[in-house]
Design brief:
Elements lengths: L5 E4 L2 H4 L3 H7 L4 E4 L6 E11 L27 E6 L3 E7 L8 E11 L1 H7 L13 H7 L19 E6 L8 E3 L14 E3 L20
Antiparallel strand pairs: 1-7, 2-3, 2-7, 3-6, 3-9, 4-5, 5-6, 8-9
């Protein structure tokens, strides 16, 4: 008999741990997006850890700014940023307050509300692609800067929440370099995913931008 996923909300203490403990422990958890159209639920299959001011790949590497201020706040809150002038990405703040770190939610399997997500992801060829990548995940769940700072630990009535779900055995996970991170941060194997899951996004190494002449 298959045990149903645990729908207990994750606690702030869960996220108050070091980011490299939290990141792999998020795989198999349930992310819920509530909306007037109905809920969308997603089983997390891929994440990346960012270690704040100790990590050249992190938005918080050079200290607090107006953009990243949520990362320096209490754990268990959403950090949403806008990138390339087109896409939003959803992160979860980790560690003790004042020490910025976070986990980028890269991909997942939509288990409830796929019909709602399809309306937002018209280019998806199938349901496996609805949230296959961080920008696609945010688009499918209609996440933007208005959710920046939302507490993810208050339960399913919140705009965004994270539930216990069915965590994955750490020995069954894969890890490797983070997607698109260059420089000193490229060496860290801080991307974690469920191997052979069809919703995991393809790895892409950092490609330096070429200046126009």
């Amino acid at each position: 008999m298959i045990k149903a996923p645990d729908r207990t909300p994750l606690t702030h203490d869960f996220f108050a741990r070091p980011v490299l403990e939290v990141a792999p422990d998020l795989l198999g958890r349930i992310l819920v997006r509530s909306s007037p159209e109905g809920p969308i639920e997603l089983r997390l299959t891929e994440v990346e850890a960012y270690a704040g001011e100790a990590d050249p790949g992190s938005h918080a590497y050079r200290g607090p700014t107006a953009r990243n201020s949520v990362m320096f706040g209490p754990p268990g809150h959403a950090y949403v940023y806008f990138t390339y002038g087109m896409w939003h990405c959803l992160n979860v703040v980790c560690g003790p307050e004042g020490q910025a770190s976070g986990v980028l939610l890269r991909a997942g399997e939509i288990t409830t509300g796929a019909e709602i997500a399809r309306k937002r992801r018209l280019s998806a060829r199938n349901d496996r692609e609805l949230a296959k990548g961080p920008a696609r995940l945010a688009t499918a769940l209609d996440v933007d800067r208005s959710q920046n700072g939302v507490d993810l630990c208050t339960g399913e009535d919140a705009p965004l929440s994270l539930l216990t779900g069915t965590p994955v055995d750490p020995e069954q996970l894969s890890s490797g370099p983070r997607t698109g991170v260059g420089g000193e941060g490229a060496v860290h194997p801080w991307r974690f995913w469920i191997p052979n899951d069809p919703t995991v996004s393809p790895y892409r190494a950092h490609a330096p931008r070429r200046r126009r002449t």
